[in-house]
Design brief:
seven-stranded mixed beta sheet, six-stranded mixed beta sheet, globular, about 25% strand, 14 helices, about 35% helix, alpha/beta, about 400 residues
Length: about 400
């Protein structure tokens, strides 16, 4: 870019911070506008697959995050009784996809991304709304309190209930309830040794994963009407629903405190957007393609969005409209496809019928024995993504 141009990022979550870092790396003057009083993330932990780690390579963070990988040896899928339905091997996965699956506290990634930005780039307690998405002839405008700011690029990274998305596409129905609710907790569990696993029951799901810092990340899901809460506390609800499942589930529930448990209903964009941009404004992450968490791709897709957006925007001359049509063309088909697969996975994971679940479990067990790599093959097109190659003038090294 001949001159530093301004980008405003609405939302300081993982996608927004990744976009800000990627744009800053390419010479943009970036301001992140976060409505919350701090960047303290909502949530416990997240998983980064090889595709998300390659996107982080663009920001110079990939290897640092890979060092946090803790999943060693066998893992896989289990039944509530403890029976293994399928096995997976961390080394085989890393060899197939060119890298590990990393589970880490959400706060760790937020801190690492924020550290890539210059001092003062993040403004908290700064609710913002889009006044004008801009066009090829005029800049975009965002209202922040009583002020109105202009920018060559606005990035809507404000989550599943995005106000920026609503301003761009007012006729879109917005987020729809998936039909299930989730619980998450991140706790110390000294001396615990177990293989990373996910357990599928009838209309219920549990996952337990060790982290490198010695803590355990666990999550659960069940089909439920929206807006429900436990009559006492959510830990008690987890004990009622999962307390008789195989170890280490009872030990984790015994070690947890009520304040350790987070519960959230899950919403997604059941109808894909027509585009991820309008004028000089782009959407990314949950604002663009919120999906169920069953493939673990929410954060990964947001980081992919961020580096592709910065790559496309950086190819424009200063004060010219960034190439957001190319961003939409590159990201919308991929993210829409992964979102669709996440919905399908949720239906399989949370199937409720006795016969349906028995058939599901037996099919998984048989397939795992007959073709051990079958489940990994289904993840090929997700995990094998590569970041876009830069033009020579960008002077950015991409891992591939």
């Amino acid at each position: 870019m001949a001159e530093r141009t301004r980008a405003l990022v609405v939302g300081g979550g993982i996608g927004g911070l990744a976009a800000a870092a990627a744009l800053h790396r390419r010479g943009w003057q970036v301001t992140v506008l976060e409505r919350a009083p701090s960047l303290e993330p909502v949530g416990a932990a997240l998983s980064l697959a090889p595709n998300g780690l390659r996107a982080l390579d663009v920001l110079g963070l990939g290897d640092e995050i890979r060092d946090l990988a803790a999943w060693q040896g066998d893992g896989g899928l289990r039944a509530p009784s403890g029976r293994w339905l399928s096995r997976s091997d961390a080394e085989a996965m890393a060899a197939r996809f060119g890298g590990p699956l990393v589970l880490l506290p959400r706060a760790t990634l937020v801190d690492r991304l924020a550290a890539l930005l210059p001092s003062g780039a993040v403004r908290t307690a700064a609710p913002a709304h889009l006044v004008d998405p801009g066009s090829a002839e005029r800049t975009a405008r965002v209202a922040v309190g009583d002020e109105e700011w202009e920018a060559e690029l606005v990035v809507g990274a404000d989550g599943v209930n995005s106000r920026v998305r609503q301003a761009l596409f007012p006729d879109h129905p917005g987020a729809a309830y998936t039909g299930f609710t989730t619980w998450r907790l991140l706790i110390p569990l000294p001396g615990a040794e177990f293989a990373s696993h996910e357990t599928w029951g009838r209309g219920r799901l549990w996952g337990t994963h060790p982290l490198k810092d010695g803590r355990v990340y666990a999550y659960a899901a069940t089909a439920a009407p929206p807006g429900q809460h436990a009559p006492d506390d959510e830990l008690s609800e987890l004990r009622r629903q999962f307390g008789t499942w195989h170890q280490p589930v009872p030990d984790i529930l015994a070690a947890a405190r009520p304040e350790d448990v987070l519960r959230h209903d899950v919403y997604h964009l059941a109808r894909p957007l027509p585009a991820y941009h309008l004028g000089r404004t782009a959407l990314l992450g949950d604002a663009a393609h919120a999906m169920p968490p069953m493939l673990g791709q929410g954060a990964n897709q947001a980081i992919e969005d961020a580096v592709v957006l910065a790559h496309r925007a950086a190819r424009q001359a200063a004060h010219h409209a960034p190439d957001l049509a190319a961003y939409t063309a590159e990201r919308l088909p991929r993210a829409t496809g992964i979102a669709r697969r996440s919905v399908q996975a949720a239906r399989l994971n949370l199937a409720d019928g006795r016969i349906t679940c028995a058939l599901r479990d037996n099919a998984l067990a048989l397939a795992s024995k007959a073709v051990p790599t079958l489940l990994l093959r289904g993840f090929d097109t997700v995990a094998n993504w590569q970041p876009p190659y830069p033009s020579p003038e960008e002077h950015t090294e991409y891992r591939h």
